[in-house]
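Example 9 (inverse folding). The structure is encoded as follows.
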């Protein structure tokens, strides 16, 4: 297995760390030619540097003895920690060797080193996505710092090449910057898992969704409330674009259970009717019925006649007399009151 420059650099750094108690001039003198020596050892035969030279702490002890420098005072607690670290590293190395043939390589580490360029690109994307989430863009597939998709694209165009350049020059970094780089990689990897969980949960929904990552004030909307012309809340309303594709704005975060959230998405808007901004419209009171002229009832309960009665009891005709004969009355005749 070929030893890479990164492995040589790590080995040198660990040897220098084991000699940290020595004066800087003595430490630099002992490790001045160490990278060249390790390069020659790596070129002689296969195998890792640890397999051929031992642990960096043991190699540093040999350098210390060769230089006549006193060994540092170490308590038993530190020795136990070092022994535990060595056992853990030995187990990791054995696991690395066992997993390698499954991937078609001598070790899994050799296969993972081939994936470094892909990780450098992903690291740049995750850095911009995390920045967009911090600056108010939310968790989105396209990072949008300050809710601007254009700004997100510009940052991606800068961050990805910088991440690739940093990965290519990582072996030139000192110990502290390299540790910070590894810590940042862990943070970004955890954030990547959050993104996968977020979009994976949305993908499991049975309701087809079309997202519109446009720069408008409705990006921060959490729910949609539809009212009809009478001011009444419409339940289970759904929105579609001109192609018949469902449009979704917001997310039912007011519901705790994931199953209930998926049901709310399928049912339509609003997700949480109890949070409607406007209550039901008040119903106006009914108008009173129209009142027309009515006949005046007689106090005795008997309807009054419409025609005029003659005092003698004979009803007087209301019509005009014809030239011949007695004209018949045209209106109703009232019976004389008895």
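The amino acid assigned to each position is listed next.
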């Amino acid at each position: 297995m070929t030893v890479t420059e990164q492995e040589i650099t790590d080995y040198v750094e660990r040897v220098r760390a084991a000699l940290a108690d020595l004066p800087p001039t003595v430490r630099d003198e002992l490790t001045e030619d160490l990278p060249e020596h390790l390069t020659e050892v790596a070129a002689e035969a296969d195998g890792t540097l640890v397999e051929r030279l031992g642990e960096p702490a043991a190699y540093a002890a040999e350098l210390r003895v060769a230089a006549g420098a006193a060994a540092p005072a170490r308590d038993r607690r530190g020795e136990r920690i070092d022994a535990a670290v060595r056992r853990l590293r030995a187990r990791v190395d054995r696991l690395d060797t066992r997993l390698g043939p499954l991937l078609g390589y001598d070790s899994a580490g050799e296969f993972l080193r081939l994936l470094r360029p892909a990780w450098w690109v992903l690291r740049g994307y995750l850095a911009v996505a995390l920045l967009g989430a911090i600056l108010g863009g939310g968790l989105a597939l396209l990072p949008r710092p300050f809710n601007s998709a254009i700004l997100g694209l510009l940052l991606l165009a800068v961050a990805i090449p910088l991440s690739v350049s940093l990965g290519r020059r990582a072996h030139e970094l000192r110990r502290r910057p390299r540790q910070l780089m590894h810590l940042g990689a862990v943070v970004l990897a955890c954030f990547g898992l959050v993104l996968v969980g977020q979009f994976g949960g949305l993908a499991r929904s049975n309701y087809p969704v079309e997202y519109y990552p446009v720069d408008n004030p409705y990006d921060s909307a959490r729910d949609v409330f539809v009212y009809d012309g009478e001011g009444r809340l419409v339940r289970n309303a759904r929105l579609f674009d001109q192609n018949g594709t469902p449009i979704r704005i917001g997310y039912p975060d007011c519901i705790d259970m994931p199953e209930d959230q998926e049901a709310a998405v399928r049912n339509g808007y609003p997700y949480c009717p109890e949070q409607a901004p406007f209550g039901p419209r008040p119903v106006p009171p009914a108008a009173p019925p129209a009142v027309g002229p009515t006949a005046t009832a007689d106090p005795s309960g008997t309807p009054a006649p419409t025609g005029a009665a003659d005092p003698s009891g004979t009803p007087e005709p209301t019509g005009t007399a014809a030239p011949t004969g007695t004209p018949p009355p045209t209106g109703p005749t009232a019976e004389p009151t008895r």
